[in-house]
Design a protein that fits this description.
The protein has 212 residues and is an alpha/beta fold. It has 7 helices and 9 strands, in the order βαβαβββαββαβαβαα. β5 (90-94), α3 and β6 form a beta-alpha-beta unit. α3 packs across α7. The longest helix has 15 residues, at 197-211.
């Protein structure tokens, strides 16, 4: 299944926000769910999907962020996430459109003296269980960033797995709250929801200051 508008629909209208797909699709047995960060990664996903017998959903947004051209995709494997940048203070686990916002947050956090890793969680189901365990064991704080509904999304999936396995859950989940989103420019909408890079960096820096 190739699922278009898998993020905020922006000026297409309030009915075109594709922010619920991952939530109901990942509940279906045997269904695999993927969110590409770029056109290149989506092409890898399609090649992989065409070789499979079971169902999978590839959820892609309206447009690719230009920043992704600086990070070429070298392949795709279900249940395997990309560590695009390393960092020792916090890990930003982002999916789809939010990978670009995670990079912006990383830059702003670096200006405040915090070193953030950026992880592309393109495989929603299955998760990268080994990487989640590594994050839990390392003691590094980590946050999930997604342009989809909070309830039942990537952050929820990670939290469920952590509870079942006795692992450390994410410190925070940046996602869309339990309300309908109005029509508007994409940049304005994610700003309203606190999903811009600067909003994410500000929230994380504040939390890190309280912890310190």
């Amino acid at each position: 299944f190739l699922v278009d508008r898998a993020a905020m629909g922006g000026e297409d209208g309030a009915t075109h926000h594709g922010v619920y797909g991952a939530n109901f699709m990942r509940q279906m047995p045997h269904m695999q769910v993927f969110n590409p960060r770029s056109i290149q990664e989506m092409a890898w996903m399609i090649r992989w999907a065409l070789s499979q017998d079971g169902p999978c959903a590839i959820r892609y947004p309206k447009a690719e962020h230009s920043l992704m051209r600086s990070y070429p995709c070298k392949g795709f494997s279900p249940g395997k996430w990309e560590e695009l940048e390393k960092g020792q203070d916090i890990a930003l686990v982002a999916t789809g459109t939010m990978v670009a916002e995670a990079f912006m947050a990383r830059q702003l956090l670096r200006e405040r003296g915090h070193r953030a890793a950026v992880i592309n969680a393109s495989s929603i189901k299955p998760l990268d269980f080994s990487l989640i365990k590594r994050l839990s064991d390392s003691g590094i704080a980590y946050a999930v960033i997604e342009e989809q509904a909070l309830m039942g999304g990537l952050g929820s999936a990670i939290g469920e797995y952590c509870i079942q396995e006795g692992l450390r859950a994410p410190e925070h989940i940046f996602a869309i709250p339990d309300r309908f989103i109005t029509q508007g420019q994409h940049s304005e909408l994610i700003g309203e929801l606190g999903l811009r890079g600067e909003d994410i960096a500000c929230e994380i820096a504040g939390r890190m200051a309280k912890t310190a």
